[in-house]
Every structure is written in structure tokens, then in C-alpha cells.
Amino acid sequence: IEQKGEIPPELRERMGRRVYGCDACQQCCPWNRYARPTTIADYTPREALLSLSPEELEAMSEEEYLALFAGTAVKRAGLAGLQRTMRDLRNNFTLPIGTASTSSTVRRFIRPTTDDTTSEG
Fold this sequence. Notes:
Elements: H1 9-12, H2 22-28, H3 47-50, H4 54-59, H5 62-68, H6 74-77, H7 79-93, H8 103-110
């Protein structure tokens, strides 16, 4: 997401299934072993985001993006970065953009992962 312009093909596969890199910090932080699920609504996933299809993420307008991510760090990365990353995910994993996908498809690609295909290094 921080990369301006296209991501070189040799780096795309290292992205794994991440749309944003926040999972890497969550996975390596030693304090997270003490973390418990929150009950504070402001810190839970927004249903509006989780219910989006990959097609909707790629076709999102600037206004929709700003409204959806208002008040979050994700907004700083920009719509172009999100759309580029979604294209790269589709190319990396043959994500069925343009087919009958559901919100579970988005959840599968944005959930935290621990497998070796998403590790840094």
C-alpha cells in the first residue's frame, strides 16, 4: 500500500493475501498474546466493509472510499492503492472478480493469516 505506482511482479507473491500490511504487525507483536476480542464497537470490523465484494472494492469511487474509511488509518493509503492491491490479489490468487463472489470471498482474502505464504522475508 505504501508503494507508489505498480508493485513489481517479483514482490507481489510476497504480499500473500494481504490487502494491507497491518496483519504483519499484529502477528509479530508479543503483547498480542494477551489480547482478547473487544466489545467496544469502535474497534470491531465494520460490517459495511466486510460485506463488500471484490468487484465493489475495485469499482469504488473516491467518495465511497472516503466515507467507508473515514476515521481509520486505511484512508491514508488512498483508493488507488486499494484498487491496485485488489488487482494484484486477483492476479496472484485468481480471485474471481466479475463472477458471483460473496462477502466470504473478501473475508477469506483479508482475514489475518499465519501460513508461510504470507510471512515476510
